[in-house]
Amino acid sequence: MDKAKIEELLKVDLLKELKLEGLDEPAKQGVVDDAVYIIVRGAWIKIFEALSSEKQAEFSKILDGSPEDADAILGFLKKEVPNYEDIIKEQIAEYKSVLLAK
After folding, report:
1. Is 82 exposed, middle or buried (0-12, 13-18, 19+ CB in 10 A)?
2. Range(s) of the domain holding residue 87
3. Nearest by Cα to 16 from 98, 99, 92
4. InterPro entries recorded for this chain (predicted)?
5. Is residue 3 situated within a structural domain?
6. Could you give the CA distance from residue 51 to residue 32 in angstroms, rounded to a whole number?
7. How many distinct structural domains can be found in the chain?
8. 46 with 38: CB under 8 angstroms?
9. 101 near 94, Cβ under 8 Å?
10. How far apart are the first and last CA of the chain?
């Protein structure tokens, strides 16, 4: 997916486009939570694929030892996967693209 398409999809309000804005707040939150889970899972897979075996092991140690330490996780990502934000944006765009195609 090219960068322009990713940027276009990042601007899409899925709840509005899927005509779900009339749902009550708990239902909307459920939709958002499901989307976040799928997007984050896909992003982690892509990030791990971008790492060497050694770096995967190093990152796993950080996640296992301090899964709540956002500073350690972000520090590692910034150093070892400098395009991690692009990976996340691409996952968001892919998710939206799939939903909007249905």
Report:
1. exposed
2. 53-102
3. 99
4. DUF5663 (IPR043722)
5. no
6. 29
7. 1
8. no
9. no
10. 18
What amino acid is encoded at 74 in this protein?
L
**Distance in angstroms (rounded) separating the CA atoms of residues 32 and 75:** 27
**73: which 2 tokens?**
């996780």
C-alpha pair distances (Å), 58 with each of 12, 65, 102? 36, 11, 39
Short-list 49, 57, 47, CA closest to 77: 47
In the block, which residue shows the tokens 């707040």?
Answer: 25
Cβ distance 10 to 93 under 8 Å?
yes
Per-residue pLDDT of the chain (102 residues; tens, 9 = 90+): 788 888 888 888 888 888 888 999 999 899 999 999 999 999 999 999 999 999 999 999 999 998 889 999 999 999 999 999 999 999 999 999 998 887
Residue tagged 């799928």 (tokens): 38
Residue 68 lies in a domain: yes
Contacts of 62 (CB under 8 A, 6+ apart): 69, 72, 73, 76
